[in-house]
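Per your request, structure below.
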C-alpha cells in the first residue's frame, strides 16, 4: 500500500499540506513555518520553528512610534529592520 497523498495547486502556487503530514511534522496553523530543501533530486519539506523575539525600542523610539500611530499615515514596512531605519531617520 502506498502512502502517497495528493493535493492540488492553486493559480498562486499554493497547496494544502495534508493533515497527516502536518501532524507528523508538528506544524501548527499560524505559528509554524515550513521550508523546502532539494536533496539528491528530491524535495524535502521541513518544519521550521521561528524564534520571534520582541523588538526592543528606546523611550525616544517608542515616542516616535506613538506619534506615527496617532498620525495614521499608514506606512508599511517589509521588515523590522526597514521600520527601525525609518524611525532613525525621523
Amino acid at each position: 500500500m502506498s502512502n502517497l497523498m495528493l493535493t492540488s495547486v492553486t493559480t498562486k502556487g499554493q497547496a494544502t499540506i495534508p493533515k497527516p503530514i502536518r501532524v507528523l511534522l508538528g506544524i501548527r496553523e499560524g505559528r509554524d513555518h515550513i521550508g523546502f530543501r532539494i536533496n539528491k533530486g528530491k524535495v524535502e519539506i521541513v518544519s521550521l520553528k521561528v524564534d520571534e523575539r520582541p523588538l526592543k525600542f528606546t523611550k525616544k523610539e517608542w515616542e516616535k512610534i506613538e506619534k506615527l500611530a496617532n498620525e495614521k499615515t499608514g506606512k508599511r514596512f517589509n521588515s523590522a529592520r526597514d521600520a527601525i531605519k525609518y524611525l532613525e531617520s525621523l
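The helical segments are 19-25, 59-71, 80-89.

Regards,
D.
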